[in-house]
């Protein structure tokens, strides 16, 4: 794996990170003042490799839960508030499994998880293994649909991200807001679909907002899990 190099770089490097076929889709960009220069997206096979990048990422927007509930039926306020905010796109915010389910890979009695969440439990376990409270200074839980909500002027999008109409709807928004984002949107990576790249690009926008201290936390009143991790989504 190639690493960037160079002491005292005149820019910061931010990234969005999303679970995807084959590992984790990483969309990074060099950030200098108001100039954002997206780089070629790539797939890393393990979540832990994100922390081996050089130079290290200054801010990471992660499309996976960081803080987990400890009991079935104790839904995160972040998930509930995000659904209310998204309106007709609320279905895109899935229920966060309890921590023991992530660690064991087996849902608890009475815990109802959709097929995509069940499929992603091994990915979430990778995050659990690496995330300690101090890493939340750099790694922030985000959500692609919330990112698009902000890019779209705090309004939900019309189409599903997998429909051709939805793919084009999102691409138009991204190209208007992020110069040079076609480098991400036009990338050709095995098993990576256009909606993966759209999501990664939108999350990169959120990483930039977080880096600039413009990100908005959901909920506004912080909550922590039993491991001292914030249960929040930043948009």
Average the pLDDT over all residues and give the rounded result. Answer: 95
What count of structural domains? 1
**Low-pLDDT residue spans:** none
Radius of gyration: 17 Å
Apparent shape: globular
How would you explain this protein's 3D organization?
By secondary structure, the protein is of the alpha/beta class. It has one domain (11-235). It is 32% helix and 16% strand. It has helices spanning 77-86, 99-104, 115-130, 144-151, 164-177, 182-185, 194-211, and strands at residues 12-20, 23-32, 35-38, 42-44, 59-62, 139-141, 217-218, 233-234. Strands 1, 2, 3, 4, 5 and 6 form a six-stranded mixed beta sheet that branches. Helix 4 (144-151) packs across helix 7 and helix 5 packs parallel to helix 7. The radius of gyration is 17 Å and the shape is globular. It starts with 11 loop residues before the first strand and ends with a strand. The relative contact order is 0.20. The model has no long low-confidence stretch (mean pLDDT 95).
């Amino acid at each position: 794996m190639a690493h960037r190099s160079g002491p005292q770089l005149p820019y910061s490097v931010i990234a969005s990170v999303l679970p995807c076929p084959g590992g984790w889709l990483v969309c990074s960009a060099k950030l200098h003042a108001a100039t954002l220069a997206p780089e070629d997206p790539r797939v890393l096979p393990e979540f832990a490799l994100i922390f081996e990048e050089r130079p290290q990422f200054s801010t990471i927007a992660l499309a996976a839960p960081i803080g987990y509930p400890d009991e079935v039926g104790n839904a995160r306020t972040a998930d509930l508030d995000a659904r209310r905010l998204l309106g007709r796109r609320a279905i895109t915010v899935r229920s966060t499994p309890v921590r023991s389910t992530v660690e064991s890979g087996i849902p608890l009695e009475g815990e109802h998880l959709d097929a995509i969440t069940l499929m992603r439990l091994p990915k979430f376990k990778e995050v659990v293994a690496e995330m300690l409270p101090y890493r939340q200074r750099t790694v922030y839980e985000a959500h692609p649909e919330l990112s698009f909500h902000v890019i779209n002027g705090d309004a939900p999008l019309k189409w599903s991200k997998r429909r051709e109409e939805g793919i084009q709807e999102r691409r138009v928004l991204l190209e208007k807001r992020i110069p040079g984002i076609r480098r991400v949107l036009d990338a050709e990576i095995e098993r990576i679909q256009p909606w993966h790249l759209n999501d990664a690009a939108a999350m990169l926008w959120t990483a930039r907002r977080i880096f600039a201290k413009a990100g908005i936390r959901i909920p506004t009143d912080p909550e922590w899990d039993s491991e001292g991790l914030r249960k929040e989504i930043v948009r």
